[in-house]
UniProtKB/TrEMBL annotation:
It comes from the Bacteria. This is TIGR02646 family protein. Residues 1-21 are annotated as: Disordered.
Amino acid sequence: MIQIAKSRPIPAPLPTRGTRHRQQLEALHTADPAACEVPDNTILHSRDGIYNDTGVKTQLRADQHDKCCYCESLFTATSYGDVEHFRPKAGYQQEWEGPLHKPGYYWLAYDWNNLFFSCQICNQDYKGNYFPLANHAAARAKTHHDDISQEKPLLLNPALDAPQHHLTFVKDAIKDLDDRGKASIKGYGLDRPELIKSRVDHLKGLQYARMVGAFKFTLPLDPREDEFLQELNLTIAEGKQAAAEATRLWREAAFDAAEFAGMVRANFPHLPQQ
Ligand SMILES: [Zn+2]
């Protein structure tokens, strides 16, 4: 994870259609608050046509450089991805795989600050409705009259929190630095085997880029340079181009737009971040 800057202005359907439907949801809740707490009720059902609008998704993707807000995978070549609600809109779980409490944060279903772009695995296989608070009993916001600023979420908010203060990486392995890091690794599945494999491959690719980037291809060739050119059937000029591209990959590996930038920054703190 890295911190994400949410751009302005807020995409069109949220302040217009989103605000109108939020007001309808709030009126439904006001009419019968108890009914909205009954398990399995769908009184406060939000409209995915609003928060899933193309303009919303496009702006989220641009802000996040097409990466998942949690795992930082560049996954859009093989899957659509979800518009994800940080505070779950339909119901919440305080405990991992615990009971689902209703209602959810229905009044934030169209709130730009509550929306992110995530891969389906982080969102659907892991986080889902899990939204634990450190002060659940005292400060859980349960209606649109309550103040979410009093809540102390255990999950890291990609826009508000600096993830590097709560979790870090030792090579490909993710480590928590406090309770919020621990909850986020579990809640977002940041230590799942498939993701660790992707991070291992990414680090190997960077090590290779660092090595190739150091090749000069001036005569007489170093034996490793000669082997590189012969194996890839490249001319010296093409080898120089490959070295320049490898150097660029290495130098930009910790940029916001780079895949797994959080892991790269933890391992190579001297690399520029922009
Ligand atoms: Zn993800």
